[in-house]
Known about the structure:
Shape: elongated
Helix content: 25-40%
Structural class: alpha+beta
Order of helices and strands: HEHHEHEHEHEEEHEEHEHHHHHH
Mean pLDDT: 92
Oligomer: single chain
Strand order of the largest sheet: 1-2-7-4
Radius of gyration: 22 Å
Number of helices: 14
Low-confidence stretches: none
Amino acid sequence: MLPSERTRWITSQARAIGFDLCGVAAPDALAELEHLPEWLERGYGGEMKYLRDPRRLAPDRALEGIRSIIVCALNYNTPLPYSTQAAAGSSADHDSAGPRGWISRYAWGDDYHEILGSKLETLLAAMRAEFSGITFDGRAYVDTGPILERIAAKYAGIGWLAKNTCLINEDLGSWLFLGVILTTLDLEPTLGTGELPPPDLCGNCRLCIDACPTEAITAPYVLDARRCISYLTIELRGSIPEEFRPSMGRTVYGCDICQDVCPWNRNAPATTLAEFMPRKIAPKNGNQNSTPQRADLPDAGKNGDSLYAPPLEWLASLTEEEFREMFRGSSMKRAKWRGLVRNACVAIGNANLPQESHAYSRAMILLERLAKSPEPTIVEHAQWAISRLRDQKRSS
């Protein structure tokens, strides 16, 4: 079988497995990698030390003898409103459950590492069976290997790198999980000789740049991760710099704003995969089922029953054991319990609760209890939230 025939078989098989897009890139075509050292030297990577792995600079350091990079994409968009829409509606306002927070769309359901990883391993197993007469090596990665998937996806013909540094596909938008298979198998790249990657269709638009609350997109196509709300709520383990806390609003995990305002996502199709739908919130002191229950659409979140616009008081009051139960098999476990409670404290502090409301009284009681926590990080952010709510009270 010729390399071109192998590529066609692999892309067809990837779609049969459930991927929305699949392409092949040559390992020596990733031109943007040359900018990584300078970006890191500026300190833009923050505490993400893993980005300094020298293998990221060249795929052949990640897999000796590499010939091809297979890139697969899976749509994770849902029919639920974007954060910018929810902020204007009741799902993000105060109700009997108190103020509500926002969790990044990709984290509402099951851990995408496991979902994509399983599909990639299925594809790799199918390749070994189909090409059994050829000796080759292959390694599947979903954010777990020394490879920049977005850049590989560009040169696999899947999309272009936007001004917010996300990958955008002209038909599907940017709500895409990416996974790769590095292999020594000789495949024909999706882009033929002399063929350019998909054109950059951002044009003069700068909606993502202007919408970022913390000004993390310092220039078109340049992201300072240290200012990014996703970094602050997930990757940063200690204290969140005070200068960014007010701008974080009621976000508790990740951030979708730069994608929510993107014109290419206005008509982005929604997935039908149940695994990406919001998980229902487990009852307090109850046990989460081994198979998480999904919120009914399109009403998820209206009663505070799912990870779509969840009540902040519920998040902030989770015990470590409850956190482990609720977020087993979820990408949100990366923030860890103390990180999520820390974030919820900041979000409550930004909730601008009316001083005469029951929500204000409940929030102050909860924050004062958290301010006595044995965890210094939680104490600091609870105290900040108390002070901020009191300041809002005086200025109202």
